[in-house]
Amino acid sequence: MKYLSTRGGAPAREFCDILLGGLAPDGGLYLPEAYPRVSRVELDAWRALPYAELALAVLSKFIGDIPREELRTIVARTYTAQAYRHCRPGRDAAEITPLTTLEPGLHLLELSNGPTLAFKDMAMQLLGNLFEHVLEQRGETLNILGATSGDTGSSAEYAMRGKQRLKVFMLSPHGLMSEFQRAQMYSLPDANIFNIAVRGMFDDCQDIVKAVAGDAAFKARHRIGAVNSINWARVAAQVVYYFKGYFAASRDNGEEVAFAVPSGNFGNICAGHIARMMGLPVARLVLATNENDVLDEFFRSGVYRPRGAAETRVTSSPSMDISKASNFERFAFDLAGRDAATVRRWWSQVDAGGGFDLRGTPYLARLAEYRFVSGSSSHADRLATIRAAWRDYGVLIDPHTADGLKVALAERESSVPMVVLETAQPVKFAATIREALGREPPRPAELEGLEALPQRVEVMEADAAAVKAYVAARA
Ligand SMILES: *Cc1c(COP(=O)(O)O)cnc(C)c1O
Predict the structure, then answer these.
(1) Per-residue pLDDT, 177
(2) How many Å lie between the centroid of ligand 1 and the Cα of residue 262?
(3) In angstroms, rounded to a whole number, what is the distance separating the alpha carbons of residues 306 and 287?
(4) Are 171 and 208 a contacting pair, CB within 8 Å?
(5) N or C terminus: fewer CB in 10 A for the chain?
(6) Other C-beta atoms within 10 Å of 37: how many?
(7) Which residue owns the Cα nearest ligand 1 atom 1?
(8) Domain residue spans in the chain?
(9) What phi and psi, each to the nearest 5 degrees, are found at residue 250?
(10) Which residues line ligand 1 at a C-beta cut-off of 6 Å?
(11) CATH 3.40.30.10: does it fit domain 94-117+233-437?
(12) Pairing between β-strand 224-225 and β-strand 142-147 as defined by DSSP bridges
């Protein structure tokens, strides 16, 4: 399996080669040359597999340069009941992503049972073990530079902490994460973890990471790698739970299942798109945004108009406060019929501060074939949905999952099971839960007192040069 760039200007590479980098050298994102197809026979054989074996089956279609037995070991070490133990009472942690039925035909897929209580652990835990494997094999070291609006950073740090050949430099928007999220990241004592709080928004952090990654000389000299959602391995790892969720919500492989996905950088739902391209019988993919509704606007109108950091609103589902979805380029590449010249043209407009308009073009027909629908959610919607889920189903959900459930309820078709992806646990966003329900969300006993631990963080201006200097001195 070879990978190519969405901008068409980079040589085809193997999985392990693109694993350690971020963007392709031409500024594009890597995608498989062609999506692997899953036959009906394979689908039937996969239905009963435990999570780790399903992950091996799916991932070995994407990874041609790690021997299968080694990949099996890596995957088995990653997807353990112990690592994903924070499931709801009565659910089976060995399922890794247990399905909770709210009412007939409406389900939650629990993706946030890992160490940092957000769905990012699903991919990041695997990434940590893949990095370790490849660096060990090659005798190399790597410095991860990342940007986080909250959940990516802690997930990356928990996945990489204490690993010999890795350091993590994580940028986060100063003062904008929840107290719990800050405590999770900044309290890690590991010497290979560096937290940088940037005076700005998440998009500023992401722009700095892009600026550094765009400096090829700096990147090579300091062996800079990425764990942001542009990292292909993360998207690939996320494909697995669409299969798992599909099997859990259907009786046989003739049925279709819809998925509702709280979205920000378009990484999670991009994996759903890829699962469908592989042949998984996915009905609608329901994209949910919060007040930052660039993607909702696109799927409703065919106009993609990303906004700058200054226009991004701070909301109560902060991990979705994104106005320039980095993974969207992967989807656009498929939409363009995999024509890199078209993607280059669209992104030259995006990079110049504009966007693109598909109205009146043939691309709109393909967009319709892909069967996305979308909606957005406000703070009031979020509170109402958290209350309704608690009242009607006795299930406590976090604000991001509430955005997903709100749009899922609006877009549900009566004959098609709907799976809402649960992307975080309520305890990470306790203030909003208190506002909605007047009660404290439960927290795992082992995380009692987290906020009282000593914290390590460097506050800096939104300045790529300053961040480079900091990294260069420590990498
Ligand atoms: C990252 C995140 C999202 C958005 O996922 P994308 O892959 O960026 O679309 C939604 N909810 C939570 C809790 C997250 O951490």
Answers:
(1) 85
(2) 6
(3) 16
(4) yes
(5) N
(6) 10
(7) 319
(8) 94-117+233-437
(9) -125, 165
(10) 118, 120, 151, 229, 262-268, 319-320, 400, 423-424
(11) no
(12) parallel
What whole-number distance in Å separates Cα of residue 119 and Cα of residue 86? Answer: 12
pLDDT of residue 22: 73
**Model pLDDT, residue 472:** 96
Mark the ranges of the chain whose per-residue pLDDT is less than 50.
none
Q: Output the CA 229–ligand 1 centroid distance in Å.
A: 9
Ligand 1, residue 120: give the atom nearest the CA.
15
| Through-space distance between the first and last CA atoms of the chain, rounded to whole angstroms | 32
State the distance from the centre of ligand 1 to the C-alpha of 137, rounded, in angstroms.
32
H or E element, residue 159: helix 151-160
Six-digit token string for 104: 């007939």
- Token pair of 161, please? 């902490």
Give residue 436's pLDDT. Answer: 98
- Annotation says 324 is catalytic: no
In the prediction, which pLDDT does 210 show? 86
Going by C-alpha positions, the residue among 433, 451, 428 that lies closest to residue 116 is 428
- Nearest residue CA, atom 2 of ligand 1? 319
Residue with tokens 């350690």: 20
Q: What is the pLDDT of residue 418?
A: 98
Q: How far is the CA of 139 from the centre of ligand 1 (A)?
A: 33
Written as one letter, the residue type at 315 is T
Ligand 1 atom nearest residue 262's Cα: 10
Q: Which residues, in sequence order, are CB contacts of 119 under 8 Å at separation 6+? A: 111, 112, 151, 268, 421, 422, 423, 424
